[in-house]
Predict the structure of C1q domain-containing protein.
Amino acid sequence: MWTKIAFLGIAMISTINAQAGPGGTSLGDHGHGSVAFSVGLSRTMHIANAETVTFDKVFSNLASAYSEHTGIFKCPQSGMYVFHLHAYDMNTDKAMWLELKKNNELLVSISGYDSHATAGNTVLVHLNRGDTVYVKARQGQEFSLFGRNDEIYATFTGYKVSDASYQAPPAPDQDPFAFLNGRRR
């Protein structure tokens, strides 16, 4: 009987791998769509000194690119990625302010003031292999993120959506009203 179950398991994995199309979503395939992670905070974390949030509850970590020890996602393959960040503040008379960063560059922020504030944000960004993405407290802020094993409110999720590359347009003219004076941007 165990031989039949083992054979059935191998046959199912082979079928899944065979059914994956170009770009791949099959087990063990590293085409687009096969890099994903979702993590949460299962404990209350006091944050000070602009430290990185180490989300300790791993829901999924396809391609093992997120480290629950450092709180850092290290991009294993270039492409377009979506990142979601959500948090729950448990402070009275303090501001929660978190920043989602790519290599030290600010991508997006979330903030909430006073007890029981929640906040979230999402961004689509191009990453190169080796780029890092992480959640960090804003410099000068001190607060606590709430979490317990049975109450996970702070989450960080990222996944690859495309192999496409993207180059940001050049920075616009610093004068947003230049067009009113006949100047070009």
The chain has one domain: 32-164. The radius of gyration is 21 Å. The chain is about 10% helix and 40% strand.
